[in-house]
Amino acid sequence: MVPDQRDEVQCPPPDQRGRRHPPGDEPCHLHPGQPGWLEQVDRAIEELKPDSFKGYTIGDNTNKNLAQYPWRLDDETLLYPFYERLLKAGHDIVCVHKGLFPPSIEARFPHLRPYATVDDLGRAAKDWPQMRFVVYHSAYRFAGGGTAEQGLEQFDRTGRVEWTSDLAEIPAKYGVSNVYGDLGQIFAQTTVVQPRLAAALMGILVKGLGADHVVWGTDAVWTGSPQWQIEALRRLEIPEDMQRRYGYAPLGAADGPVKSAIFSENSVKMYRYDTRRAALDGDGVSRAKAQYAAAGGERSNLAYGYVAAG
Fold first, then answer.
1. In a 10 Å sphere around its CB, with 0-12 CB exposed, 13-18 middle and 19+ buried, how is residue 163 labelled?
2. pLDDT tens digit string along 110-168?
3. CA triple 92-53-56, angle to 5 deg
4. Which of 101, 188, 230, 277 has its CA 20 to 30 A from that of 89?
5. Residues near 190 by Cβ (< 8 Å), separated by ≥ 6?
């Protein structure tokens, strides 16, 4: 959430429901290498009191042709002083956009490919075990200009999906337990058009990272109301043939331990959210729920957002 949004739904501290996670134009967004970027970090910590920081390692994700400051998580000169600063200030969560860089985008911006993969994550995670690294989109390559069919073809042919498989192998390869995979876009872009690919991605992540290191995300601002994605994961199961061939564990019941962890429990633990707090009756979310119930409480499951023309 950006600061204004978080404040809108909150009760007075410490009974805070929302967590601040700024978008690209916020001071809590990382701009390594740009003039004064560490001073901006200091100001954000002091004034905005973020719950985590986010960055795009390719520099400028929206305007890739203008990306002048790509960076790596394992850059000892540029990023390691930032991690040290965060830890001294009591922060330990860094979220990074990875993936969403299909072959068609790579053909246009080949110089940015090394920054879109997770090749820089393993050493950074090992060097900074106190930090927690959340990889947005789980580094899934084929959204943002590619197709789910490309991802499924690759999985059927190799048993891997770029670069989600690389992410999932980091804990075993580097001996770390501070790497997390987020499902924003990765689930929305696969579960309807290629549910078998969605199942494969879930199997890859849960097997490699552990069910306690996969966190729910929807990117719902781009894909409409998130309820349809929630319902889809509740119903999704990894096919038995895929479980046998690749050693994937079943996802289980809608309210079972795996899906409950992914939907909420992992993020609750990560952000140290106190679920015992009961003083949320008067915040913005509770008021909206009361109004919804008063209006009948029926779920429409409509998807709101942009629709592709004809």
1. buried
2. 999 999 999 999 999 999 999 999 999 999 999 989 999 999 999 999 999 999 999 99
3. 125
4. 277
5. 148, 151, 197, 198, 201
